[in-house]
Specification:
Number of strands: 15
Order of helices and strands: EHEHEHEEHEEEEEHEEEEEH
Structural class: alpha/beta
CATH architecture of the largest domain: 3-Layer(aba) Sandwich
Shape: globular
Distance between the termini: 33 Å
């Protein structure tokens, strides 16, 4: 399968470096890449208006002229499906992508391990091989849930609440069962809570603040471990 990809960055050195990493990933991947480079958001948008054919966009946040966030907002007016990955040298900008449903962020200098994980995820998603989580609802109905849509999970008195982007789902599985179903993108921050690292804005010693400002409690003795998991998820390999 062909993954149609665009790299939008006003620094040629950064574009070429990312291109070299993508070609390295392609050498062992089952899918192939078609990669186009653009030196500005305006240059990309000019072509995009004529041909919206992309599956994957790597967008530098800080560019001359239109910045990456504003560009992504324009794209989302027409396309909810294209995978957007932001590139930035400043982690403070990471929370800005919540409104455009960014797939991920890459912090400069780009970590090849983290990039390859993102590409594997997109490749599996496009090939239909990302396994959904299968749960039994409170009404005793089997339901599959896309792990990417899960924001957090909470153990309730009699059920397990799964908060997704589409709403709340009540499952019969225990929170321990749910933890076993989920991958590395989740962190059990307390006995009663599992949170998706993707939707975390920042972490304090008492709570985790999500992108939508919801607060999730965290056990004090898990603060350092949570921070390492959070940093590793977005930057890759820092805790190794």
């Amino acid at each position: 399968m062909l993954i149609r990809t665009a790299v939008i960055d006003d620094e040629s050195v950064q574009r070429e470096y990312l291109l070299s990493l993508l070609k390295k990933w392609e050498e062992t991947a089952i899918n192939t890449l078609s990669i186009h480079q653009f030196d500005s958001a305006e240059a990309f948008m000019f072509e995009y208006e004529e041909d919206r054919r992309y599956d994957m966009l790597f967008i530098d946040i800080q560019m001359k002229g239109m910045n990456g966030i504003d560009m992504a907002k324009k794209i989302r007016q027409h396309d909810d499906l294209v995978n957007i990955v932001f590139i930035t040298a400043y982690p403070d900008f990471m929370q800005s992508g919540y409104d455009v449903n960014a797939l991920h962020y890459l912090i400069k200098p780009i970590n090849d391990k983290k990039l390859f994980e993102i590409m594997d995820k997109v490749s599996a998603k496009m090939s239909g091989t990302v396994k959904p989580v299968l749960i039994r609802t409170k009404q005793n109905v089997l339901m599959k849930i896309d792990p990417d849509s899960i924001i957090y999970i909470e153990a309730d008195a009699h059920d397990t609440k799964i908060c997704t982007k589409s709403g709340m789902i009540y499952a019969k599985e225990s929170i321990t069962d749910m933890a076993g179903m989920l991958g590395d993108g989740f962190f059990r921050c307390q006995r009663s809570f599992i949170v998706s690292l993707k939707y975390i804005r920042y972490i304090t010693r008492k709570e985790i603040v999500l992108d939508d400002n919801r607060l999730i409690p965290i056990s004090r003795n898990l603060y350092d471990k949570a921070n390492r998991a959070f940093i590793s998820y977005f930057k890759g390999g820092m805790d190794e």
